[in-house]
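Why do we bother with holo predictions? Because pocket geometry can differ from the apo form. Keep that in mind while you read this record for KG4.
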Amino acid sequence: MRVLGIESSCDETAVAVYDHAIGLLSHRIHSQVAMHQAYGGVVPELASRDHVRRLLPLVREALTAAESDKESIDAIAYTAGPGLIGALLVGAGFASGLGLSWGKPALGIHHLEGHLLAPLLEPNPPSFPFLALLVSGGHTQLVDVVRLGEYRILGETLDDAAGEAFDKTAKLLGLPYPGGAALAALAETGRSGQVVFPRPMLDRPGLDFSFSGLKTAAWVVLRGRELAESAKADIARGFEEAVVDVLAEKCRRALTLTGHRRLVIAGGVGANRRLRERLAAVASQAQAAVYFPRTEFCTDNAAMIALAGCLRWGAGMREGVGMSARANWELGSIGV
Ligand code: KG4
Ligand code: ZN
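The structure, written out:
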């Protein structure tokens, strides 16, 4: 079973080939970050047009690198949602057209299922069931991953996603878009405890999050002031520590609640070093093992989509065959 994976839900065009028996054979990615930087955020129409330009050359590259051709591909898996609708339609149309011409099925995959399964691309993958913290630019969720295709949302953000809060605060600090990684780098030089941010939702029971207040708190500290680089670094450090504290405490609570012994971190913010260290400590205290995908598989990629397609198809799950693109799509409602 060999699957060609296609990801185009936002500002990365990515293609990968995954083989059930061998593992990941190739993956290629083109980031549009430089193109959107001038606008301070993703411009949906530009994103769609660039996916159109990039997809075919990337498919050729990925197939060549995997020493594969259309005969050796059994199915095509593409991201059907959630995401930018124009960008999704490019990938869905492309994958379905390719499937028709090759005589192979095209399978629509939920983008977040891809993120949740990304640690399975690594050498020591977690087995089901596990607890997953999904932290990206668009989502912050704690998910009980019962088995392939069964995902129970335990808690989620009521407003901004963690990555969004990183990006917006980075923008206030004058860092280039997307600022999450740049803010984290600046925080490395900042001093702990100099600027203290609130810890939203920690005083309430439950597993939901709220991050929009942190961005406002950063704005209040920064407004109208010319700050030295070292003062900005202290703010970045204080902000990062607040986000990490909240995520770590909610993970601790979720591990206690579910009794799971495996904690998976998925999504772009999972690349954050301080978060990784704290979650490793939280897991260790709960006698749980922690699993991080490598950084390139934390952020958007097609390897996770090809893998999800391969697992689903291999398990006889036929939901999602055909062409579909959904801007909004609840993870808890995906079929099998
Ligand atoms: O999963 P992803 O690539 O895209 C979405 O599906 O959203 O996540 C991107 C997010 C961005 O908000 C980015 O700023 C954030 O992940 N990010 C980080 C770091 N690296 C990427 N946030 C904090 N620390 C990092 N090192
Ligand atoms: Zn993503």
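The chain has two domains: 2-117+300-333, 127-292.
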